[in-house]
Amino acid sequence: MLFFYVEANLQKKSILNRFSIAPMLDWTDKHCRYFHRILTKQTLLYSEMVTTGAILFGKGDYLAFNSQEHPLSLQLGGSDPNALAKCAKLAEQRGYDEINLNVGCPSDRVQNGMFGACLMAKADLVANCIDAMQNAVSIPVTVKTRIGIDNQDSYEFLCEFIDKVMPYSETFIVHARKAWLSGLSPKENREVPPLDYERVYQLKRDYPHLTIAINGGIKTIDEIKQHLTFVDGVMVGREAYQNPILLTQIDQQIFGSDAPIPDPIAAIQELYPYIETQLTQGAQLNHIMRHTLGIFNGREGAKQWRRYLSENAHKKGVGIEVVEQALTFIQ
User: Fold this and answer.
1) N or C terminus: which one in the chain shows less Cβ crowding within 10 Å?
2) What is the mean pLDDT for each group of 10 consecutive residues in the chain (331 residues)?
3) Known catalytic residue: 105?
């Protein structure tokens, strides 16, 4: 069920799936990914974006994950080839399956660090960064990008970027909306300007040897299937997080698995051993359960489920009993 490519220099194989969950800052942490893996076994998961500075100089462990999360890609933010190569090597040693470079985030904070979407204007630097990482690791290195930035939004600009980077990585996850680097917040940039799926389709037609995944505004199984008639993979972000019930259908509908569709209540109960382990290691219940709030959307008792967890999971010393009580509201 995996798509593979032959990398021009190192003959590495991509693990890009037909379906993946987008890296989302402050959302797709290790607790979130563990929960998502219960719902879908075959989806490619991504870490939050982690900067090279955090990994190399930060006090925390920014590479931590659970072994059950595989296949798992680490998204890096940075623009220094040497620092990126060091971080990629550390990630490979920790067991990540893939490295992804962020060339798509439009926030001011990211731009000030010279990474994210602003790097689309520096394709030579991106190529150098990918090359350095490819030479440092044996796992694949991929690129997540936009279709353009600011007034550099022509199809020719996108192709020029691809032409310079593809000798070093032939897997691109393309958010089908250009990034405004000034005047819009990252939240506003999720809705403005309009999505242009056709441009991503055209990219796949013009570069058939590349592995192209599409991202942006995708919400349903039918939409995922439609996109897969034009490109190799689909990445979903906010919808997968806010309505995780979608993920229970992915293995069967997208990957053709004959395993039973996970039951949402059973999925929450499957979290219990993980919750207990994490609580003994100092985690807080609300930090784990916040990622599950949307699992019962549209079902009777969902509002009470969310309210009970929101009002009680943050309290000191609470545990599984809070989750068990919250489940009693679900009909």
Assistant:
1) C
2) 35 67 96 98 97 95 95 97 98 97 81 80 97 97 96 95 96 94 65 88 98 97 98 97 98 96 97 97 97 97 98 97 98 91
3) yes
Active-site residue, from 32, 87, 105, 129: 105
Query: Residues 59-89, buried b or exposed e (16+ Cβ, 10 A)?
Result: eeebbebeeebebbbbbbbbbbbebbbbbbb
DSSP 3-state of 287: helix
Q: Please give the distance of CA 173 from its chain centroid, rounded to a whole number.
A: 10
DSSP 299: S
Pick from 68, 18, 67, 76: which is nearest to 47 by CA?
76
- For 305, how many CA atoms within 13 A lie in the half-sphere containing its CB? 24
Which pTM value belongs to this model?
A: 0.92
Q: Distances from the Cα of 177 to the Cαs of 48, 103, 185, in angstroms?
A: 20, 13, 14
